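For reproducibility, we list the full input for the zinc ion complex.
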Amino acid sequence: MSRESPPACECPPEAGAATCEVPRASPDGPCPACGKPGKPVDLLTVKAMLAVPLTELRATRYRFCKTPECPMVYYGVDADHPIGETALRERVHQKHPEDDDVFVCYCFRHTPATIRAEVESTGRSTVVEAITAGIQAGRCACEVRNPQGSCCLGNVRAVVENRKRKGVIP
Ligand SMILES: [Zn+2]
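The corresponding predicted structure, in tokenized form, follows.
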């Protein structure tokens, strides 16, 4: 399997930037539920996220569907096998981008609500710096804690920008 080198992202190398949020051309099929292309996800991530017995797993590669209105989170590339959020141990940020209580950073446990609370009490957000420092200290485990299986920083930046745009935080 030949693989192009991934495009650069802004995450520190310790975050596993090779699997970060920058979209790539997809050689495999789209999500069987919503038809949008999914992102390859390591089997270890699916194993870590499933709340059902791992005997459910198929011998296939899995992809992650980030479409907010699609109920499926993972699907098998060859075997179809869509897996919905109810079969998982975590609620998935991408499926609830406006929900203040769903984690956006699963390693250091930040939600839109905790991000807003910091801004309300201190006047600014240090969440990106805090996560970056945690990554550099070797304390992140995105591949087994984050449903997308990769670094959350892109999502965290998007949450901060989104809440600023809406005037929720200054
Ligand atoms: Zn989908």
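Residues 1-7, 22-26 have pLDDT under 50 and may be disordered. The domain at 28-87 is CATH 2.20.25 (N-terminal domain of TfIIb). Both points were considered when choosing residues for closer inspection.
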